[in-house]
Amino acid sequence: MKINANKLRRHIVRKFCHTSGDSERLQALMEYTQHLNDYILSEGKKWQANLPELQFLSGTRTDLGPKFPARYYSYLDELDKGEDYEPVDDKEILQEVARFFRGSLRSGSPNALFNMLPEASIEATAAAWLVTTYNPNMLMDFFGGEALLIEQQVCRYIGKWAGWPQSMGIACNGGKFTLLYAIRLAISRMEPESAKTGLPRDLVILCSEGAHYCVEHAASLLGLGADNCLRVAGTKDGVMDPNELQRVLDEQHLNGRRIAAVICSGGTTINFNCEDTCKILQSINDFSIRHSLRQRPYLHLDSVIGWIYLSTLNMDSESIFAHFSEPETRKRIAEVQRRLEGISGFDSMGVDFHKNGLCPYASSFFIASDRRFMDELGDGNYKYCDKDFHYGQFRTYRYTFENSRPGQGILAAWVNLRRLGRRGYADYLALLHRARNSVSDALARHSFFRVLNESSLGWEVVFAILFAPDIISLSQSHEELAMSFMQECWERVNAGYNLPLFSIVPGYRINNDPENIITAFLVYPMRQYSDEEWDDIVKLIAAQVNDFQDRLRSQQLSIERIQIDRPVR
Ligand SMILES: *Cc1c(COP(=O)(O)O)cnc(C)c1O
Hints:
Layout: H1 5-13, H2 23-49, H3 75-80, H4 90-101, H5 122-134, H6 141-144, H7 147-161, E1 168-172, H8 175-190, H9 194-197, E2 203-208, H10 214-221, E3 229-232, H11 242-254, E4 258-265, H12 277-290, E5 298-302, H13 317-323, H14 327-340, E6 348-352, H15 353-356, E7 364-368, H16 373-376, H17 408-444, E8 449-451, E9 461-465, H18 469-472, H19 478-495, E10 503-509, E11 517-523, H20 531-553
Parallel strand pairs: 2-3, 2-4, 4-5, 5-6
Antiparallel strand pairs: 1-7, 6-7, 8-9, 9-11, 10-11
Helix pairs in contact: 1-2, 2-4, 5-17, 7-17, 8-10, 11-12, 17-20
The structure holds pyridoxal-5'-phosphate.
The site of pyridoxal-5'-phosphate has 12 residues, from α8.
């Protein structure tokens, strides 16, 4: 798009007196956004052009990589520079916008394979963008309008997949919020007075060993305390060990503790740990009856990733066959279907549309099987009744963490749900598994890669690099080699080379076996590519392994003791 600088300036100067939705303003927004984008792309290319060509891999500077080239700096030093920020001209604003993106992931890059990075659809992104331009507030429908109904329709839509005909919920900023809502709600249900009087001291929550690392922090933020979140040991299938679950439940009960909630895994980023929901339901019901509990522990499914499998719950074997052409994928889908069957008896679940719902950040939903949460998440002074559920009366701020709330995630999710429907998401799930199978096959074509997570029910690929024997003798451990190799790969991507950005998994448990541990690597395919394209991506990893080993042999490189933190995922 050609930018008319004067026109642009006119629009920008008029920054205090435009009208939302007026098409001239939208035009100006689009043009200015395009202008910013042209600038950051040209800056990115400039930074990249300063890089030396890689001798063993040419052509990795022609296109931008999975990251805008990064700059290394100290936060505290930068902040201490003590600049008096004077207003700057347009050109410097462009530079600041470009700086914002330095070192950040470019989700559109084919080499962005680090984690479950959203590949947002054009439709959902445009919808979210439009919400930004109109800027409605989701705190009540008098301000936010029908968006608040659509928020509930998203929840009902997915809730029905779980077998909850009365489901309602809350759009929120991330999966962690869905856990915060679940735990807070569980506490209120166990101890209704707590909304007014504060937390009782005898509550604990349980989750599985493989549950997301933020469960403890959620407990801590809520004042329950991280120590009152107990992890139950798992089996090789990545589910809570049923005997251990019984033991912990009874032990806590005997100690006079009340179990407010069991936070169940509904699929995790690595190994797709997913509880057998029927078994959990049975155990919790038995436990409650055995001890004549007044209130059964609250059951939440952390399905921020696994929700997409719910799209298949109503499929018979014939449609499974039609949707999932590969036998190994069909087996995985059938197993997850079986494990999720008990979800209809659960109280709530989490859904992250920004993970695998083809939506931009942040588009998470806490979905409850009914609407009791509206009262139970309140401050104890309000009960929702019929009159609240008419246009002009509906207010969410009484039960939400946030007061003013953004609406981008709501419209993005709804647009994709309506475009794709339940079957469309099942197709996307099929595509993800096809991608996993292609990547695994591509890795298997190289003798020094070994795929480790054959038994996972997800679509991630975890693999080991088998370094050559003479290389292993140069180092203290396989782990040290793996870490050094990862460090090198990350440094290249940070510098701006267009190479695969993948990840390392220190202490990976092969088949969830705590005795069978290795430092592994992780590739997260989120897109549809041909087998040849996956092959090319894997070749770029292989070329870096070869180079790493060559330089160690010729002593151009030595292994330094380095410490990589467990990467956040
Ligand atoms: C990603 C994830 C979370 C946290 O979600 P955010 O959207 O990053 O806040 C929680 N649980 C599981 C299983 C996850 O994969």
